[in-house]
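User: tokens in, sequence out, please.
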């Protein structure tokens, strides 16, 4: 019997209404009454918003949640989507395996209801969604269908709403009753190999799930073999209903090595200091390999102290090939393979070790931002375990890995002797922008912010590395087209690049290409600094890339715009002659020159005079009077180690501090948003971040760590201790930016400030002038690769429906972190 017939049978609807088929029905609420529920009844709606790689999204459903006007949908309800098109909610049901496949789930929403007879904590295991609102609170999704996401959530007594924003075209959601309050979960581990003969401590990254409605604190974790002692480590706090990948050390010297190859059991234990018995235990397995075999290494990242991994294949040692200095080939995986899968294509290579970084995640890794940093950190860690010539390091990749080779070749050019991108793509696809002539100041600033992610202008930085650019296979699509565009760009300036197009995509052809790549690598060694006479350095953001060889751009005149400095050194005349564009300060390293001598410097046609070579660097600044030398930039000014941009807060082991001094709604939002950001960091970057309440935060401790505050000056008690001198003050009802007020309870403001008493640390803020403004920040896409954020963005909840038109202010603080002079533009003219 169908649902309409059931409703008629029990007298809920009339026969006339039943026959008219005009009844509007809610989704069937499924009851969680046992230990497990696979959700099968949904309402779905196609994409309602405008998303993409821009700082502000348009989404009328999120707008309704932020404003408190959200109501559960019924079949047939319509939503006015972005662009003015009316979209309709329709019913949908999952198949026998629990998967719901529907065309609406590529960017659209799926809604479900679950009822319980009592409040309880359950585990949500879902896949295929970007995120989910659980009774209005944001929780992270699993957009790449990895099956690794597990979340403790609260089901309140009665009806519960689950609103999934979907990404993959299909969705599966399951609720499970947890068997323990706290437990290790093995589905997403970061584990090393046990390498024969090595005894140094290793790091394990293992998920720890906290099903309690209070923070998990004062815990220690151990890892040990069946026989042997264990190392004890403090476990950082996990927020209420939180999941965190914790770092646990292991001492491999405490067990007897078995016969290779082998699987070795390792026992993990979590102990709370106030309890005698372990709170959680589990046993995992590590693979043991020979020292010359492919192996997985782990290390603690400087970004957040999380455990990250890379794979490496040591160079072949027993060979008749004439000896060459051992080099390191770094290979970047594409979007659909892991580093280990890449290395499996190679056998041991004479004089070349091969390293495959993970990029922090296989899925969603574009080798931009944090995944690019991971490649450099992996290379630094490998240098501690393998001997290789730092001037013989080469970088390659295919597809997305090819894009990464160009990105890292452009942003860290001093690390590579040669680059070998294959089937590389160049830029992200971007939405059409407003014609320049018709742009408002806000639109012009947003266009400038978005353009700062372009890669093509930065290719100039690769001039000192040889490049083997290849397009392989009969491809009429994007990669082949981008390869030709890249070749055309390189031909304008690059002195040493080769472009090859291959139509044969057979295994034999690919094997031949690999052999040619290895020969290409062996033939190239990076020049010594003293051998480089001409340097051309280009950057949009000195905080991301600032240095090529001995030349560094320290500051810009117009932040976020393209800056360039080209300097030639004439050793006979001891003369540096340079031209600059949009450069406010630069430095020239002279450690390679003979000490106790002098050099002349001319910039932009201005003779600056003679400068003494003291073995360090020469610094020059530009102001209204022209160029002049400077002893050192004051640490309070912007410079590469702390240049700003909102995303820069996710470095220096950030601490997320949520406010507890607001209303119940505001406090609940601050906890939920900080936890959501930590979860998103885990899913997207395999990272691990501290989430603490303002009452537990000590601002005098660890002054060089970055801080993110959630709330405002009225709701977060850490605010006055960190931001008392900030020109941006957010309180309930208003935002004041350098004495200019914006009034309303629906304003959202994100910004960064320098942390006092530190020359490197940043304080970031996610704030609102009321609960509506706070909720408007829930899904700001600052974790999405290719999205750039300025120092400050002020908008209202109306921007979720009105788009750019309701961004109130955006831009950059001045070089002294001031509003005036600075580059912040406003929607409205000041009165």
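Assistant: Sequence out:
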């Amino acid at each position: 019997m169908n649902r309409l017939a059931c409703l008629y049978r029990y007298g809920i609807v009339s026969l006339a209404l039943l026959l008219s088929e005009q009844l509007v029905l809610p989704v069937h609420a499924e009851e969680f009454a046992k230990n497990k529920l696979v959700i099968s009844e949904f309402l779905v709606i196609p994409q309602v918003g405008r998303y993409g790689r821009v700082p502000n999204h348009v989404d009328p459903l999120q707008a309704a949640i932020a404003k408190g006007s959200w109501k559960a949908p019924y079949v047939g309800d319509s939503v006015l989507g972005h662009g003015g098109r009316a979209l309709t909610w329709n019913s949908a049901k999952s198949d026998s395996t629990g998967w719901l496949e529907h065309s609406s789930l590529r960017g659209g929403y799926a809604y479900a209801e679950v009822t319980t007879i009592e409040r309880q904590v359950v585990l949500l295991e879902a896949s295929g969604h970007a995120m989910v609102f659980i009774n209005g609170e944001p929780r992270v999704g699993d957009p790449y269908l990895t099956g690794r996401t597990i979340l403790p959530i609260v089901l309140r007594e009665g009806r519960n709403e689950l609103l999934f924003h979907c990404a993959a075209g299909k969705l599966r959601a399951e609720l499970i009753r947890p068997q323990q309050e706290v437990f290790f979960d093995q589905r997403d581990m970061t584990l090393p190999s046990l390498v024969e003969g090595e005894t140094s401590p290793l790091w394990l990254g293992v998920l720890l799930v906290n099903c309690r409605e209070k923070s998990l604190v004062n815990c220690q974790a151990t890892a040990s073999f069946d026989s042997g002692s264990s190392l004890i480590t403090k476990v950082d706090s996990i927020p209420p209903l939180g999941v965190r990948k914790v770092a646990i050390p292991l001492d491999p010297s405490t067990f007897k090595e078995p016969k290779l190859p082998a699987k070795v059991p390792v026992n993990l234990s979590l102990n709370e200091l106030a309890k005698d018995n372990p709170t959680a235990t589990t046993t995992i397995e590590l693979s043991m390999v020979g020292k010359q075999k492919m192996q997985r290494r782990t290390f603690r990242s400087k970004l957040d102290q999380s455990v990250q991994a890379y794979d490496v294949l040591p160079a072949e040692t027993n060979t008749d090939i004439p000896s060459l200095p051992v080099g390191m080939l770094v290979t970047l995986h594409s979007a659909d393979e892991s580093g280990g899968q890449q290395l499996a294509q190679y056998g041991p290579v004479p004089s070349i070790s091969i390293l495959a970084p993970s990029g922090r995640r296989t899925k969603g890794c574009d080798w931009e931002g944090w995944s690019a940093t991971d490649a450099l950190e992996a290379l630094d860690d490998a240098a501690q375990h393998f001997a290789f010539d730092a001037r013989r390091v080469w970088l390659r990749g295919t597809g997305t890995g090819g894009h990464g080779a160009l990105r890292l070749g452009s942003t860290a050019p001093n690390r590579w002797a040669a680059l070998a991108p294959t089937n590389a793509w160049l830029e992200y696809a971007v939405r059409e922008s407003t014609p320049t002539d018709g742009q408002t100041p806000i639109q012009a600033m947003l266009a400038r912010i978005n353009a700062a992610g372009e890669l093509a202008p930065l290719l100039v930085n690769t001039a000192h590395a040889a490049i083997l650019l290849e397009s392989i296979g009969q491809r009429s699509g994007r990669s082949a087209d981008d390869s030709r565009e890249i070749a055309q760009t390189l031909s304008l300036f690059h002195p040493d690049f080769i472009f090859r197009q291959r139509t044969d995509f057979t295994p034999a052809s690919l094997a031949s290409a690999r052999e040619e790549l290895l020969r290409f690598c062996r033939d190239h060694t990076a020049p010594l600094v003293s051998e480089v006479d001409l340097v051309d350095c280009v950057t949009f953001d000195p905080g991301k890339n600032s240095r090529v060889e001995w030349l560094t751009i320290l500051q810009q005149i117009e932040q976020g715009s393209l800056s360039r400095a080209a300097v030639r050194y004439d050793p006979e005349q001891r003369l540096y002659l340079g031209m600059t564009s949009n450069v406010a300060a630069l430095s020239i390293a002279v450690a390679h020159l003979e000490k106790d001598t002098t050099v002349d410097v001319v910039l932009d046609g201005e003779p600056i005079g003679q400068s003494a070579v003291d073995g360090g660097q020469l610094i020059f600044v530009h102001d209204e009077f022209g160029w002049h030398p400077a002893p050192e930039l004051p640490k309070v000014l912007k410079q590469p180690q702390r240049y700003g941009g909102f995303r820069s807060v996710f470095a220096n082991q950030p601490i997320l501090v949520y406010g507890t001094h607001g209303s119940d709604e505001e406090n609940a939002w601050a906890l939920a948003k900080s936890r959501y950001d930590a979860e998103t960091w885990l899913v997207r970057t395999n990272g691990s971040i501290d989430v603490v309440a303002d009452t537990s935060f000590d601002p005098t401790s660890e002054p060089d760590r970055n801080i993110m505050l959630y709330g405002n000056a009225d709701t977060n008690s850490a605010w006055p201790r960190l931001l008392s001198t900030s020109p941006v003050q957010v309180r309930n009802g208003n935002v004041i930016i350098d004495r200019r007020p914006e009034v309303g309870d629906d304003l959202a403001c994100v910004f960064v400030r320098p942390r006092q008493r530190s020359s490197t640390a940043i304080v970031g803020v996610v704030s609102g002038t009321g609960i509506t403004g706070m909720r408007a920040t829930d899904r700001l896409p600052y974790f999405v690769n290719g999205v750039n954020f300025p120092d400050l963005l002020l908008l209202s909840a109306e921007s979720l429906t009105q788009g750019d038109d309701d961004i109130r202010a955006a831009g950059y603080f001045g070089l002294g972190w001031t509003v005036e002079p600075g580059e912040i533009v406003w929607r409205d003219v000041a009165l």
